[in-house]
Amino acid sequence: MTKPFSQACENNRDPILNVIQNYFDKASKILEVGSGTGQHAVHFAKHLPHLTWHTSDQRSYHEGIQQWLAESNLSNLVAPIELDVTKQWPETKFDGIFSANTSHIMHWRMVEDFFAGVGEHLDINGYFCLYGPFNFCGEFTSESNQAFDEHLKSRDPEMGLRDYVDLEALARQADLMFVEKHDMPANNFILVWQKAISTNIQFE
To answer: Is residue 33 part of a domain?
Structure first.
């Protein structure tokens, strides 16, 4: 198998790193949901040597991720976990979770399970950084994002750009407190949430 390569990953890896390093500076164990080619994992692990970067994706992506990990020879990279957000997550917690370009290719039901899983597996005070194109209050932020959304829906009507308002509703259900929005190149964003102490307390 030829080692997979994404030009987009090469283009956005440094702008993403410049943001997430501020949230993961004291973290020790990061889960990347949807590692794709593995390029982000290698780049981030190389520049954040104080933490261990756990890759994950569906089984079909593992061989390509393994090629990138093996070539990097980095000791703080962990072989990919088989992860389908709608099913079993790893039986451990992480003090940081990162994901790039995933929510718009998931069906909405998967996005719901994704946020619930993050809420369950992120340690208190840990950060969740989600990168990608998003809408805000029902509006596209650029014509290119609108065209991209139309392209996604032509492939699968249940895919498409997600609105921050809807994601924030899921985050609150998962005890994730919104921290900040970062504008990124190419009409993308990083949305950051922090795991809060549960407010879903029931009194008898």
So the answer is: yes
